[in-house]
Amino acid sequence: MQHGKARFVTGFLALPVALYVFYVVWPYAQAAGYSLTNWGGYSDTQEFVGLANYVQMFGDELIRTAFWHNVFFLVTLPLFTIALALFLAFLLNVGGRGDRAGVRGVRGSGVYKVIFFFPQVLSLVLVAIMWGAIYRGDSQGLLNGILIRIGLVDAEQPLKFVSDPTLFLGVPAVLWWLLLIAVWGGVGFYMVLFSAAMQSIPKDIFEAAMLDGASRVTSFLRITLPLLRDSISVAWVYLGFIALDMYALVFVMTPNQGGPDHASEVFASVINFTAFNKGQFGYACAIGVALAIFTLLLAAMQLRITRRERIEF
Q1: Rounded distance between C-alpha atoms, residue 263 and residue 83, angstroms
Q2: Nearest-CA neighbor of 81 among 181, 219, 216, 153?
Q3: For 219-270, what is each residue's pLDDT tens digit?
């Protein structure tokens, strides 16, 4: 019986696994192989250079710039997105006034959930194009137009937004404007994720805390956060993956797909620039492999640090 069951399962899995290996695993293996060559991408000539491409990365100024930009997103994007999503989820689930119906969310919470989640149904490129019109660096841009009309910005010197390489808190200003878009686009999804986790927490816990005189802040810090630790850990890993990408926003919104003057370069844009502008596909593959290894190690470290016994309630 068990032997027949194994053959039945194997028969169903054989084709999907084969397709996955061919279309997913094999391209990764090819990229790892190309990273050991000086392949130019447009010919069959491939000279084996070993680890020379990986050694070259350590002395590449553009790689170092992109690395620190990705680190900026890696720190700020999960922090701001999760903090805002937790705040909104708490308000929409247990932030309302307690009455005979018990603890509940603010009035109209269902409508707010739809509004906040709406950016998730839009493609990232569409979001970038929309925000491109908002960030337009002349008086015709939505944000510049508003600031000029209320007198905060000179019409002759409008803000450049995603074309501004000047430093703000030690980071190019363009990265802060891109961060705002990323947080706006992602907070709705994680708000829904945390809302679902909060709804699984018995309301009796919050009601008991209120009867004991606990404030909303105390309830959030002492009850909600500890019970949402697993969901927050997963969200941090997902947002870390997004922070190590950021390619679509950089490609669509910034000058020269990483400008101005490489002020918004990230690993993904450097890979594109190295492969298609400089014609160094072998080196670009090495950067991609290094990024993949760094991402996996970071995710494993995050899950290891936040691992703990599951809380039952």
Answers
A1: 27
A2: 181
A3: 777 777 888 888 888 888 889 888 988 888 888 888 887 878 888 899 988 9
Distance CA(197)–CA(92), nearest Å, equals 12
Q: How far apart are CA 35 and CA 45, in angstroms?
A: 14
**Nearest alpha-carbon partner for 112 in 90, 130, 88:** 88
Q: Global pTM?
A: 0.84
Question: Hey, what long-range contacts does 51-59 have (CB within 8 A, 24 or more apart)?
Answer: 53/282, 53/283, 53/285, 53/286, 54/286, 54/290, 56/283, 56/286, 57/286, 57/287, 57/290
Binning the chain into helix, strand and coil, the percentages to the nearest 5 are 70, 5, 25
- Which pair of structure tokens corresponds to residue 122? 């839009």
Q: What is the pLDDT of residues 167-208, one digit of tens each?
A: 888 889 999 999 999 999 889 899 988 888 887 777 777 777
How many whole angstroms separate alpha carbon 57 and alpha carbon 53? 7
